[in-house]
Q: What sequence folds into this?
């Protein structure tokens, strides 16, 4: 039986003594920084064939024609922008999440379009018109079995799409579930065992539909749900009492695959592949940061809101199927006056031979903690702070890890480490 | 191809497009060797020619050519010429176009809505904005109206938009119209005013109030405007109605001084008073009054002789006093040398030498842990009573004054002190005790009393039900007193008296299931408030809820485990019981507590007690024991030639008189459950008595017979002259003795009964619980089921003068009908809902003959019985059966042969072998196999 711990990176405003933080560069020297524009807590970074890729909302996230909007391909050694992938026509061309497969770059924009570019030629291969913005992170999988990776993504308020990676034609569309506001980044996992990965995400029923495959939509919160990768059909659906902004996370426990779901009001559910509830606990209000489960079975999740409740990850009598776990210890890293939207990554950036949790706050701290929630260090970033999760990998090939921070000041920072340690979870939606 | 052929071909293609429903949205941009064209279903429709192309949206596609970006229609023609340096796809009828880094708007019709001269254009959620030279203007939906582009920012506040200029001054727009210019502040966001037309604005350092429809209500003249925390929700627009203090510095007349003074305005911009500015003291008192939390929230303005009041509903009234205390809905005013009490209408109620509020003694003293008085504070009662005083023989004497009764309700006393009593956890105000006249004793005033008592009591405790327990020093006994008819009545007197719950907290019993003793406390005992008395030798008694006094003779009184309206009483080692409601006493004869229950048959409670040999069942009524089976153990006895009934108890071996020996003859009837006694009076009239000796049927009948309904419910038929009455064993009269005869009418599904009465060959209908449904005027009555799933919905069909009517009826579930002797639900039947008339009825259809002789069918189903369809009569087929009509009568053919001649007015298929027909006022079944008729009763 495995003991799991929830580590809440919670902040308790004004209650704790403020400790002066060391600058980031005192621990992790700055290798380079490059202007790319602002990012969001859903922004992901990809490291593909020796190049860093990241999407940008440009100078601002508003709907102006913005010269910094687009996707950036960056040299990991120098930070030089090797290429940009931009929408050829004017408009709000903010890019949030990206995906790369078969040497093709997939991304949606706030200009009601989804694009596919050929990374080799830099040419647009196809585009697909949409009814609204794409704020989510696309996921690539061969949905139609033609041997070529296709792509799926949600459109704000208009459901999910799967497009043929070959020509951009529609494979399926599930518009009875919209992705409401949060545009939850999807988890790609084979739920139904048919060999094709399915989509686990969250959203809300659209107003013009009161049924999803027989499920009544008389519900004010969002839903966690799984869609069949082949057809887009609903595989399962779980109601939540609140909106969902966090991405589902899969982990393995005792050889069984589990999925962690967390809504904005802090209801954390662990379900099996078919969405059956295994355990459930309340963590209190305010979650944008996605939960991650470390291999040593600690749940790490940062918190946005001011409120804080102690919580334990345990089953209660209210739920008929108790999760076979012991009562878990909660340990919080207090983050005074900080808000956390980024998802905590798991890597050995200190070179200690054990994993650490690494995250950033919107107010400019990078924190490093043990996976059991013990605080190790808080470092002051040179920029403003970040919503986007850090990216940790040996990107420049020197055998040591780098930490990439997409700061809200519009720059992508690359910090060196001395660690030759391993990376358990290096990036948000970076697979 | 020459031009004419090309044109013809394009028309042809266009017509195909229309015919096949093709749209521009079907056109897909395709990149062919680096240039874009458009395909539909894989076929080239617009040949590759563009440097870039988007999909069509709203009829136009954005394309790039060597000369720039433009928009084409689905024919490939340019609706907007390709002259722009960049552009956005059409959305919501418009597309942004850029020319030399300047932005404009074109419509999807090709019109230029805004020339590309702006730095930026932003489509907002509610408004659109244009930017030029780092300044902005606000545009409406279609950009047909734009404010001057001179602003740094816009702030929307309800219907106002405040626009800040570079110089920091604000222009105010109301619904797109510029209403004010160059103000120092925007419409104040923190001061929501009453409606969307009113704004708080600052000009030249002074605040004013502006209404879009009226202009300045107050020119800017006030230093500050204070929102008064006095809020009232209005139905009108769900915003708060508020009061504003308009503060200004004004010169004090006849001096060089200036003073801060106020005017008061309601949130809708109306001044409450046109008077001079109020002083700071007056304003303070306004706010002070507001904190008074009384039911007359309001603002108060004084002058030398009067006070103006602004009420919560914003009505303004004037009171001719300027010194007053507001108290609940009354005012205490200084009125010459006296003090007067005014009601809310300012009408004088009463005057005294002094009128004071009553200090709440309990709340006004604070003690430390050692009992030392630490602090006294004046805390008043918020009860509608006052202390009023007047000079009597040179002494000031005080009394209690009831504001509700508008009179003095206690004696006048010197040094009077009043103490209110808030009773129990329900926090009910019960009354006052009072002292005075140098006496240690107290007087009592309780709500409902005309006048409080003299100073006769000590230790007064108030309880619910207008009761109190007080110690009477004269008798040295406690008295239970109750307000009745405006006075205190003595209910019980004993060595001590206390509420039952002080003695009966719990009851211990052995739980067979658990195998252990359990303790229960019934909440019912607390709800059924009653008092227990204790004698000087510690014996207990009580006062039942109907006023019956149970003397203090029991060793203990306990909860009864069976029914909470009973108490166990225990004395001499034996248990009895007392009915709290009725005062009924079951003697203490059982060695174990009795279990009380209710016998519906005998209409009485009974106690189950254990004797030495096992269980004995006994009923206790009127305080006497006798057998639960009075019939078996009842015997008609003859006393001096008069007949009565005695019951014999096999438990106690005693007998009891059930019916006194007053009758000429008594016959004991038994339906197996309930005994009834048919008695003949000495005058020869027959009446019916029940086991309690109560009269079920009056002595006015001259004959009787027993009968029963289909559900085996026993009934008595009583004859009065030639008329018959129907009586139920439990409920008495069901049908009065007004009819020649009666019979039970089963509804045609056979699952519910009615009582059909007959007089002079006419029929009427009663329900089984004796409710008259139909008067006795009909030739035929049927009840049919109308809903096979819910048998409670039925229809009554009546025939009169050859015509049929139909009305719905709802009957309650028969299974619960007589549960516990009470109707669970009522029959619902409204005879005004009769629908018709019909010439004849077939199943649920009524047929009416038209003047042309044709029959029209009406769907007459229930419960609505609304005629919604009609059709000419057609033979009604059911398998081999066919209902036919001839000369306005119905008949039946089977396999083509007439088996019933058309002489009926109502035919209803019942089952495969049975139909129900009505003829000449009678219903009967017709068996299609035996081809015989049966009366309903026979069937």
A:
């Amino acid at each position: 039986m495995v003991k799991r711990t929830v580590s809440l990176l919670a902040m308790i405003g004004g209650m704790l003594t403020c400790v002066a933080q060391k600058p980031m560069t005192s621990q992790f020297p700055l290798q380079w920084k490059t202007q790319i524009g602002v990012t969001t807590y859903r922004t992901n970074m990809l490291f593909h064939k020796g190049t860093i890729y990241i999407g940008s909302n440009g100078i601002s996230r508003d709907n102006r024609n913005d010269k910094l909007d687009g996707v950036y391909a960056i040299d990991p050694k120098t930070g030089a922008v090797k290429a940009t992938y931009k929408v050829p026509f004017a408009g709000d061309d903010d890019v949030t999440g990206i995906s790369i497969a078969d040497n093709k770059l997939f991304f949606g924009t706030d200009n009601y379009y989804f694009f596919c570019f050929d990374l080799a030629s830099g040419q647009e291969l196809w585009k697909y018109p949409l009814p609204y913005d794409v704020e989510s992170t696309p996921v690539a999988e061969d949905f139609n079995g033609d041997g070529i990776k296709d792509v799926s993504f949600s459109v704000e308020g208009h459901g999910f799409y799967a497009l043929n990676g070959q020509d951009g034609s529609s494979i399926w569309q599930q518009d009875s579930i919209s992705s409401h506001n949060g545009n939850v980044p999807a988890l790609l996992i084979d739920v139904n065992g048919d060999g094709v990965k399915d989509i686990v995400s969250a959203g809300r029923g659209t107003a013009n539909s009161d049924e999803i495959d027989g499920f009544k939509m008389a519900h004010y919160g969002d839903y966690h749900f799984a869609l069949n990768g082949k057809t887009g059909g609903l595989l399962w659906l779980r109601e939540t009492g609140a909106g969902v902004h966090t991405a589902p996370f899969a982990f393995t426990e005792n050889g069984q695959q589990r999925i962690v779901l967390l809504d904005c009001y802090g209801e954390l559910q662990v379900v099996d592949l078919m969405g059956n509830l295994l355990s459930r606990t309340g963590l209190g209000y305010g979650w944008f940061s996605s939960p991650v489960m470390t291999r040593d079975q600690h749940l790490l999740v940062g918190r946005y809101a001011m409120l804080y409740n102690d919580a334990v990850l345990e089953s209660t009598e209210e739920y008929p199927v108790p999760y076979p776990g012991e009562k878990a210890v909660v340990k919080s890293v207090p983050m005074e006056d900080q808000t956390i939207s980024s998802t905590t990554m798991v890597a050995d950036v200190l070179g200690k031979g054990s994993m650490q949790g690494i995250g950033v706050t919107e107010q400019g701290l990078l924190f490093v903690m043990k996976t059991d929630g013990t605080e190790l260090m808080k470092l002051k970033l040179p920029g403003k702070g970040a919503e986007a999760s850090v990216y940790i990998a040996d990107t420049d090939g020197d055998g040591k890890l780098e930490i990439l921070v997409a700061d809200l000041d519009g720059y992508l920072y690359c910090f060196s480490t001395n660690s030759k340690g391993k990376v358990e979870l290096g990036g948000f939606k970076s697979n | 191809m020459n031009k004419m052929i090309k044109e013809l071909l394009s028309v042809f293609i266009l017509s195909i497009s229309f015919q096949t429903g093709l749209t521009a949205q079907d056109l897909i941009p395709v990149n062919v060797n680096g240039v874009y064209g458009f395909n539909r279903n894989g076929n080239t429709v617009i040949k590759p020619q563009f440097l870039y192309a988007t999909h069509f949206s709203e009829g136009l596609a954005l394309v790039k050519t060597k000369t720039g970006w433009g928009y084409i229609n689905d024919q490939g023609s340019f609706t907007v010429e390709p002259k722009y340096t960049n552009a956005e796809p059409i959305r919501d009828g418009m597309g942004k176009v850029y020319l030399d880094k300047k932005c404009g708007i074109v419509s999807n019709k090709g019109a230029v809505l805004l020339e590309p001269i702006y730095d930026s254009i932003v489509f907002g959620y509610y408004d659109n904005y244009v930017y030029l030279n780092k300044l902005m203007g606000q545009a409406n939906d279609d950009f047909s109206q734009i404010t001057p582009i001179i602003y740094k920012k816009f702030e929307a506040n309800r219907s106002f938009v405040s626009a800040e200029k570079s110089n920091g001054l604000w222009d105010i727009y109301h619904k797109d119209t510029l209403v004010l210019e160059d103000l120092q502040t925007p419409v104040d966001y923190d001061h929501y005013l009453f409606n969307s037309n009113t704004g708080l604005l600052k000009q030249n350092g002074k605040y004013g109030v502006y209404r879009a429809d009226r202009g300045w209500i107050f020119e800017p003249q006030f230093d500050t405007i204070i929102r008064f925390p006095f809020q009232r929700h209005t139905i009108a627009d769900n915003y708060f109605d508020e009061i504003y203090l308009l503060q200004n510095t004004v010169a004090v007349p006849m001096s060089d001084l200036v003073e801060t003074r106020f005017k008061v305005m309601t949130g809708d911009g109306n001044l409450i008073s046109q008077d001079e500015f109020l002083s700071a003291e007056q304003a303070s008192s306004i706010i002070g009054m507001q904190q008074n939390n009384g039911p007359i929230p309001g603002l108060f303005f004084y002058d030398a002789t009067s006070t103006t009041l602004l009420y919560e509903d914003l009505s303004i009234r004037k009171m001719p006093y300027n010194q007053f205390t507001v108290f609940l809905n009354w005012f205490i005013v200084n009125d010459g040398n006296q003090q007067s009490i005014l009601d809310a209408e300012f009408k004088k109620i009463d005057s005294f030498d002094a009128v004071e509020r009553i200090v709440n003694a309990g709340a006004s003293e604070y003690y430390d842990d050692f009992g030392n008085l630490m602090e006294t504070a004046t805390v008043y009662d918020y009860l509608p009573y006052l202390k009023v005083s007047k000079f009597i023989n040179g002494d000031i004497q005080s009394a209690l004054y009831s504001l509700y009764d508008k009179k003095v309700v206690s004696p006048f006393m010197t040094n009077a002190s009043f103490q209110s009593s808030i009773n129990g956890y329900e926090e009910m105000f019960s009354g006052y005790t009072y002292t005075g006249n140098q006496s240690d004793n107290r007087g009592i005033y309780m709500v409902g009393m005309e006048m409080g008592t003299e100073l006769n009591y000590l230790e007064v405790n108030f309880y619910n039900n207008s009761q109190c327990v007080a110690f009477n020093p004269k008798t040295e006994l406690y008295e239970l007193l109750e307000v009745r008819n405006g006075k205190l009545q003595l209910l019980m007197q004993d060595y001590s008296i206390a509420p039952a719950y002080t003695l009966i907290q719990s009851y211990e019993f052995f739980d067979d299931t658990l195998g252990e003793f359990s303790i229960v406390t019934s909440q019912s005992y607390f709800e059924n408030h009653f008092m227990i008395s204790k004698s000087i030798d510690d014996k207990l008694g009580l006062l039942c809820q109907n006023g019956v006094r149970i003397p203090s003779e029991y060793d203990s009184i306990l909860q009864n485990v069976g029914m909470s309206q009973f108490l166990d009483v225990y004395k001499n080692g034996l248990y009895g019981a007392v009915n709290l409601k009725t005062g009924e006493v079951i003697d203490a004869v059982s060695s174990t507590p009795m279990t009380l229950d209710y016998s519906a048959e005998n209409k009485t409670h009974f106690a189950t007690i254990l004797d030495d040999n096992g269980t004995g069942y006994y009923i206790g009524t009127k305080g006497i024991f006798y057998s639960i089976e009075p019939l078996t153990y009842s015997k008609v006895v003859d006393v001096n030639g008069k007949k009565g009934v005695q019951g014999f108890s096999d438990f106690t071996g005693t007998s009891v008189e059930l019916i006194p020996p007053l009758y000429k003859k008594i016959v004991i009837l038994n339906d197996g459950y309930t005994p009834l006694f048919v008695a003949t009076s000495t005058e020869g009239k027959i009446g019916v008595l029940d086991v309690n000796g109560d009269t079920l049927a009056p002595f006015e009948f001259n004959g009787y017979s027993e009968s029963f309904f289909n559900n085996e419910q026993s009934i008595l038929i009583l004859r009065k002259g030639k008329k018959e009455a129907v009586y139920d064993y439990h409920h008495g009269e069901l049908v009065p003795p007004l009819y020649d005869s009666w019979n039970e009418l089963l509804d045609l599904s056979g699952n519910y009964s009615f009582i059909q009465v007959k007089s002079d060959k006419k029929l009427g209908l009663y329900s089984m619980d004796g409710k008259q449904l139909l008067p006795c005027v009909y030739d035929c009555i049927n009840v049919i089921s109308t809903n096979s799933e819910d048998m409670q919905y039925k229809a009554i069909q009546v025939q009169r003068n050859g015509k049929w009517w139909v009305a719905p009826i709802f009957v309650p579930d028969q299974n619960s009908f007589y549960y516990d002797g009470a109707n669970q639900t009522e029959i619902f039947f409204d005879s005004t809902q009769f629908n018709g008339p019909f010439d004849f009825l077939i199943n649920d259809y009524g047929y009416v003959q038209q003047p042309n002789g044709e029959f029209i069918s009406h769907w007459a189903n229930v419960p609505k019985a609304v005629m919604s369809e009609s059709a000419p009569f057609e033979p009604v087929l059911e398998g081999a059966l066919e209902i036919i009509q001839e000369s306005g009568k119905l008949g039946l053919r089977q396999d083509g042969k007439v088996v019933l001649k058309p002489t009926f007015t109502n035919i209803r298929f019942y089952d495969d072998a049975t139909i129900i027909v009505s003829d000449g006022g009678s219903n009967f079944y017709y068996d299609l196999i035996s081809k015989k008729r049966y009366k309903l009763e026979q069937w």
